[in-house]
Amino acid sequence: MQSILRNPLAEPYLLGISSGASLGAVCVMLLGVGGSTLGISGGAFVGACCAFGLIMLITHGMTDSPPRILLAGIAGTQLFNAMTAYIVSTSANAEQSRSVMFWLLGSLSGVRWPDAILALAVVMTGLMVVFAFSRSLDTFTFGDEVSTTLGVPVTLVRIILLLTCALVTAVMVSIIGAVGFVGLVIPHITRLLCGPGIAAPFP
Predict the structure, then answer these.
(1) Which numeric CATH code is attached to 2-194?
(2) The whole model's pTM is what?
(3) Which chain positions lie within coiled-coil regions (predicted)?
(4) Is residue 94 classed as helix, strand or coil in its secondary structure?
């Protein structure tokens, strides 16, 4: 995501995707639509896609500059956080509201093997998508104009990768809650270990 937007501070939490996923998962849990892992993950994915759609709307289909996309994400984060807080605070079930609040803080204590298998499958799928577009991502470092000159469909690649990010984020949020800044730190650690290129960590 930092390569897509050419911003070292970009991550799902700052772009509103994590907050949108949290809102979707909370709606599923508190409204009783479904309590299974797949049901919560589905709700989280719908919420993440809504956040992504809001960013698409504000930034004219991801054609605006990366700073504008990041600002749109921050605005979306505040909006979805406010909606989540309102739903939790007005819920009639106080015990369920407390459990949702603890879940929103993020925890690995309730993770079961089916959850871990689902998370692993989604993460592996995300890695395969990133590997497929790794060369295109490396060109993003030099700007959209250079990427377009080299034959990279910038807007299409950006949308595909952000949708993939929304899917991975939704599943992880539905399992362990919204843990902020993990997506900010891991890319920097990977660069320190493997180098600045996106394709470097892949064989």
Answers:
(1) 1.10.3470.10
(2) 0.79
(3) none
(4) helix
